[in-house]
Design goal:
Length: 331
């Protein structure tokens, strides 16, 4: 009897050990991916949905998200191995490539497909026309960044040259809104939710969307160094698959549901305002519904950069874009 119970205890112990070992093995499948996002923005809703709804975790990805506040800082973080993946404007990969590198930064999954800024007027304008900008003081975005280039692209298409207005571009991204609030400029180019907050507070009034006017471009993209993708193809594949699932989630859910999902990422913003912003971005199709970065969008990006005098050299789509992960995600 004693031997019988001893054997049973040994068996149970062995089973328990195997269960624990199996659990440990499963947890090790969760690969940590350090993501550096260029700013914290409702514009990036699908990324936050992928985290809050457990979609990354479902695909064995543990995302460590850091906000690096600015394209230059984000790319520096990526290049210095402070992050595995960067969420930033795809123009930054062209800048890095043009400087010469043996380890180029590859765009592998697109998040947003339009510009995310809005034109805000200090005074209420019932019937806005783009010609209203002529002779005004316009507080624009940082020179060389995608918001500034997309903004100037729209102005040119509306028959307005930078010489037609007093253009201010020497204010840091983080201080543009406060500069306008303190009295600088007749018009300002702003991201949400600041644009809507200003409207609520009576500081300014949204009169136009640069996203609607500029057309589809690979505005914000997940990118990584080629060496990282070569060493971690399965991780990149699962990361992109999770992103695609989140993009589909956003596409098929209401603005209210999306806002509720991402609310923890914006603790200082009221749920109603988050909902308003999400609805605005959804209505103008700013959120990409899949991670593909197609060649037409890539060329449109370079045309905008070229017209702004910021394109160092044309780079073929195949050199800095790898859609294989996006293609696999949609199978």
């Amino acid at each position: 009897m004693t031997k019988h119970w001893f054997n049973r205890i040994t068996l149970y112990t062995s089973i328990l050990f195997l269960i624990i070992l199996s659990a440990c093995g499963n947890s090790s499948e969760n690969d940590q991916v350090r993501v550096a996002e260029v700013t914290r923005s409702i514009f990036y809703a699908p990324q936050y949905v992928a985290i809050s709804e457990g979609i990354f975790e479902k695909h064995g990805i543990d995302v460590e998200l850091t906000t690096t506040w600015g394209g230059d800082k984000t790319m520096t973080t990526l290049l210095s191995n402070g992050a595995d993946v960067a969420l930033v404007g795809s123009e930054t990969s062209i800048y890095v490539y043009a400087q010469g590198t043996n380890d180029p930064v590859i765009n592998f999954a697109q998040l947003t497909q339009t510009d995310g800024t809005f034109l805000v007027s200090r005074e209420k304008i019932d019937h806005f026309a783009w010609e209203d900008l002529k002779g005004s003081t316009f507080l624009g975005q940082r020179k060389g960044g995608m918001p500034q280039m997309a903004g100037e692209f729209v102005l040119r298409n509306k028959g307005i040259n930078t010489q037609d207005l007093d253009l201010i571009q020497n204010i840091d991204f983080a201080n543009i809104s406060s500069a306008f609030a303190s009295g600088t400029g007749d018009f300002v180019q702003l991201f949400e939710p600041t644009a809507s907050i200003f409207e609520e507070q009576g500081v300014g009034h949204i009169v136009a969307s640069f996203g609607k006017e500029s057309g589809k471009i690979p505005y914000t993209v997940f990118m990584a160094k080629e060496s990282y993708l070569n060493k971690n193809p399965d991780t990149a594949k699962r990361f992109t698959k999770a992103l695609y699932e989140a993009q589909q989630w956003v596409d098929t859910h209401s603005a209210e549901e999306i806002a509720t999902s991402i609310e923890p990422f914006f603790p200082d913003t009221e749920l109603g305002l988050i909902t308003t912003v999400v609805d605005r971005y959804k209505s103008q199709h700013s959120f990409a519904t899949n991670p593909m970065l197609d060649e037409e969008e890539w060329n449109n990006l370079q045309n905008i950069m070229d017209e702004s005098g910021e394109l160092p050299k044309r780079v073929d789509h195949s050199m800095l874009v790898d859609n294989s992960y996006a293609e696999d995600a949609q199978k």
